[in-house]
Amino acid sequence: MYFDDRLATVLRQRASGAVTARIQYRQLLDLLGTLPIDTQGPQIDAACDRLGELAESIDPADRAAMLRDPGLRLRNPLLVALLASAEPVVAAAAISQAQLSEDEWVDLAPGLPVAARGLVRERRDLGPRAEALFERLGIVLRGLPPGESDAALAQAALAQAPGRREPRHLPATPGGGFGAIVRRIEDFRKSRQPVEMPIGANDSRLREASSHHPAPRIRAFDFATGPDGRIVWSDPGMAPMVIGLRLAGEDAAAAVSAPASLNAALRHRQPIRAAVIDIAGAPGVAGPWQVDAAPGFDPQTGRFTGFAGRMRRAEPAQTAAVPLATAENEGDRMRQLLHELRTPVSAIQGFAEVIQQQLFGPTPHEYRALAASIAADAARMLAGFEELERLARLESGRQELETGGCDFAEVLAATIDQLGHFTDARGSGFVLEKQSEGPLAVAIAREEADRLAWRLLATLAGAASPGEILKLRAMRRGEMAVLAMQLPASLGLPEQDQLSTAVAGSSAHALSAGVFGSGFSLRLASAEASAAGGKLQRHGETLELHLPDLTATEAAHSTIEGTGGAAR
Q1: Which residue from 205, 239, 462, 500 could staple onto 523, CB 3.0 to 4.6 Å apart?
Q2: How far apart are CA 56 and CA 33, in angstroms?
Q3: C-alpha torsion 502→506→512→514, nearest 10
Q4: Dihedrals φ, ψ of 431, to 5°?
Q5: Residue 72's pLDDT is what?
Q6: Which residue has better confidence, 476 or 150?
Q7: Minimal CA–CA distance to 8: which of 432, 363, 390?
Q8: C-alpha–C-alpha distance, residues 187 and 147, integer Å
Q9: Are strands 469-477 and 429-434 parallel, antiparallel or unpaired?
């Protein structure tokens, strides 16, 4: 019923232009391609007829591009057979992207056109039954190279088919008629002539080939030892080189040199943690290794049976050769990643809004509700991306807060009043105490101060328990305006000294200052305070915000005129 409903929704719309025709063709491909093979009915027949009608108005190259879309699912053999009878470029794209089982290919292949059978034969995922079937049908992998007329089309189709074997093609010969066929046969015979090449052990060509394709270097392997610390088992790739080696020994000429701590762990049957040993031997095993192993004991007798663990290559630190990533580089990478994520999310949001607003025609209410939910989720994701980008720019020094001046005490009072709709119903809230008369002027713009105050107080209000009243004290300390905030019990535990480590979604309440949880919100508030010339730090059960005082900033920019002139 779910697929029938969607098909009915698509079939009700008429393709009035080239764009809507492509959209409807793509929708029908997706819906028909996921139907079970035994699905029948007049609606399915109507969908196939509509697919054929739309194909006449869409260029074959465009249809092939739709079929090569990674998001398309072609799991219906009947649809694959229908597409395989279309133009060569469309058939090649459909067969290469089809997701059929071996039994389905065996049932489908005899009814396909001869050219389509050859395309199926080139797939890499065919099983032995399908291979035997194509042998009986006379479809083989190799054949004559294509001529001038069809070489470009065949190569283009094969280049766009990632799921097929690359056949062996030769350059096409000019001319036509019987002479061209003879020349193609001769070129094919020459290409199949064996090349005489000695395979002696000392052949320089073999040494050159092996130097171009060195054996992969094993970075880690598992092992097990006997009670004496000698390796008795290892992964197959390293077994010939390490079986028989002792993890540690008293002999100075031994192949393994280990620290004294490893010897002590072996003697006392204790776990081995990050012990570095040096193995002398073949290039594949020689060098420093980090050993992590645990002792084993017989569950029946309790006797020590040996160690089992893993060795990893202990590469030397190359701090001089590899420069450390700066905060600026990290910020650039973060902004680039956010840009790559923002583009598809914005597209999803836009398409969801198109469905919700019925811009392409009537849409069932169920789908409109789903589209509205998707659009809301996309908007929350985009808001989170903006917060991540703001943090990256602030921490890398690429962004500064807007300068200006405002009364921070007034900002705090307005923010507390806004939060009252949430805190009053829970019996929680804030009590603001000013320790100095007059305004608490700070040297940041009012908009930035509103954002910072909301981020801090909303985070604390969301983490506060019902009935919990938090105290706020606004004061001046030298040239700084200070706001001391009492932490709620959920954030003031001794094991949570680092508030920025709180995970996203740690608060179960409806109020949140951001989509990534209280830890991220406090980290972003700390970055904003630092960009303004202040800081955000914790002292026991109190969180203190320091912002530069506006009066101190103005005094620093005063000038003196003349020898005994007045200050301005």
Answers
A1: 500
A2: 19
A3: 50
A4: -125, 115
A5: 84
A6: 476
A7: 363
A8: 12
A9: parallel
Interhelix angle for 88-97 vs 60-67, to 10°?
A: 0
Q: Three-class SS of residue 172? A: coil
Q: Give the model's pLDDT for residue 27.
A: 84
**CA 240 to the chain's CA centroid:** 38
Q: Considering the entire predicted model, what is its pTM?
A: 0.40
Query: What value does the mean pLDDT take over residues 435-463?
Result: 86
In which band, very low, low, confident or very high, does the pLDDT at 566 lie, cut at 50, 70 and 90? very low
> Does residue 146 surpass a pLDDT of 50?
no
Classify burial at 456, counting beta carbons within 10 Å of its beta carbon; exposed 0-12, middle 13-18, buried 19 or more: buried
Residue 231: C-alpha distances to residues 114, 243, 268, 292, 425 (Å): 59, 5, 18, 14, 68
3-state SS, one letter per residue, for 20-83: HHHHHHHHHHHHHHCCCCCCCCHHHHHHHHHHHHHHHCCCHHHHHHHHCCCCCCECCHHHHHHH
Q: 517: which residues sit within 8 A by CB, 6+ positions away? A: 502, 503, 504, 505, 506, 507
176 has pLDDT over 60: no
Distance, C-alpha 568 to centroid of its chain: 57
| pLDDT above 90 as % of the chain | 9
Q: What is the chain's length?
A: 568
Query: Which carries the bigger pLDDT value, residue 407 or residue 123?
Result: 407
CA distance to 2, 64, 525, per residue, from 367 (Å) = 12, 29, 39
Exposed, middle or buried: residue 340 (CB in 10 Å: 0-12, 13-18, 19+)? exposed
Structural tokens at position 459: 């985070």
| CA neighbor of 532 nearest in space, from 420, 453, 434, 466 | 453
What's the average model confidence in pLDDT over 329-351? 80
Q: Which residues of 237-257 are buried (b: 16+ CB within 10 A; e: fewer)?
A: ebeebbeebbbbbeeeeebbe
Q: Is 557 within 8 Å of 542 (Cβ atoms)?
A: no
Residue 193 three-state SS: coil
Contact, 416 vs 430, CB < 8 A?
Answer: yes
| CA–CA dist 452, 313 (Å, integer) | 48
Could you tell me which residues are beta bridge partners of residue 537?
Answer: 544
How far apart are the C-alpha atoms of 59 and 70, rounded to whole Å?
A: 20
Nearest-CA neighbor of 483 among 455, 509, 506?
455
Pairing between β-strand 272-279 and β-strand 287-297 as defined by DSSP bridges:
antiparallel
Q: Give the pLDDT confidence score for residue 232 in this predicted structure.
A: 92
Distance CA 516, CA 347 (A): 22
- Looking at every residue in the chain, the average pLDDT score rounds to 76
Can you give the pLDDT at residue 380?
Answer: 86
CA distances (Å), origin 559, targets 555, 562, 566, 567, 568: 9, 10, 9, 6, 6
Query: SS3 of 529, please?
Result: helix
Predicted confidence at residue 414, as pLDDT, reads 92
Cα angle: 526, vertex 528, 532; to 5 degrees: 115
8 A C-beta contact, residue 463 and residue 422: no
